[in-house]
Design brief:
192 residues; mainly alpha; 46% helix; globular; 10% strand
Length: 192
């Protein structure tokens, strides 16, 4: 969850351009931050699962631009898929999350039994679901929020207005190793 900064005496708190939607992230950057392939990202955008809210592609030569909130939702989709939730049920959960602001998202925990996805806003709601005795797993969206913030600290962004922001250039070796690492994990999971 976005932690308020302590501005100290006689200074104003500065807004966070990442969280406040003043910057956007191209598809390749979104993939690296979330840990998905570009093919997945493209499919999810084309099918309307997670459409970039800053700028969608509008023909050849244009690129999608994702907001911080979009990246958090992408991370949640990835975690639900990794846990075995069907794409149909993920779509229902994401539709419910679309109307939320970034700060609202950070306070939600998604609980699933592998079939249905439940939204919990308090520890009492989580306990109520657990009392059913069925095995469930949870995704604290606040945790995904923090992970994305950390990932973006070394990835390029661009102002919502247009030209790329002067950020650290993407490290090609790192980006290739992320894909290789994910492929290796998947292969190990299938083998063992």
């Amino acid at each position: 969850m976005h932690e308020p900064r302590d501005p100290g005496p006689n200074t104003e708190q500065q807004p966070d351009p990442v969280v406040d939607g003043e910057v956007g992230y191209r598809g390749v950057t979104a993939c690296h931050a979330v840990g998905i392939s570009y093919r997945q990202l493209d499919y999810w955008a084309r099918t309307g699962l997670v459409v970039p809210s800053v700028r969608d592609a509008s023909g050849s030569g244009t690129s999608r631009l994702y907001s911080f909130r979009d990246l958090v939702v992408l991370k949640v989709v990835k975690r639900l898929l990794d846990a075995g939730v069907s794409l149909q049920n993920i779509r229902k959960a994401i539709d419910a999350l679309r109307s939320r602001g970034v700060e609202d998202l950070a306070g939600i925990t998604l609980i699933s039994d592998g079939t249905t996805v439940y939204e919990c806003r308090s520890p009492e709601e989580v306990v109520d679901l657990l009392q059913g005795g069925q095995g469930v797993f949870g995704i604290a969206i606040g945790g995904a929020f923090k992970e994305i913030q950390g990932s973006l600290s070394h990835l390029p962004a661009e102002p919502v207005g247009g030209q790329p922001e002067p950020a650290a250039p993407p490290v090609e070796a790192e980006s290739e190793s992320v894909g290789d690492e994910l492929a290796a994990r998947r292969a190990r999971r299938r083998a063992g």
